[in-house]
Write a structure and sequence with these properties.
mainly beta, 1 helix, 8 strands, elongated
Length: 110
């Protein structure tokens, strides 16, 4: 990463013109291919496996809200619940339930 010496904002590489450019103030600085190669490499490794289990809440369950829903495993009629955004931001969130009796966890897609 490289920051603008004038305004302090992040500078982005323009590889065609071989310069660093500040989007905020327009300041430009020469780009050295050998020296700045590692600065411009953006990598991110995300390991998602289709068979991943349900996300486990490690918080104290007694602080979670309780609702009336039937547990598919033991038939109990109350469960803790929480909501998480597990898919894209434009899709609805997923509601998770954990049985208050047997501790079984399942999800409901809205």
């Amino acid at each position: 990463m490289k920051f603008c010496p004038k305004c302090g904002n992040l500078m982005l590489p323009d590889r065609k013109r071989k310069v660093w450019v500040c989007r905020s103030c327009g300041y430009e600085e020469p780009f050295d291919e050998k020296k700045d190669r590692e600065r411009t490499k953006i990598t991110q490794k995300v390991d998602h496996k289709p068979d991943e289990g349900i996300i486990v809440v490690e918080k104290d369950l007694k602080t979670l809200p309780v609702t009336h829903v039937t547990c598919p495993k033991c038939g109990n009629d109350t469960a803790y619940w929480w909501e998480m955004q597990t898919r894209a931001g434009d899709e609805p969130s997923t509601i998770f339930y954990r049985c208050t009796k047997c501790g079984y966890t399942w999800r409901a897609y809205e």
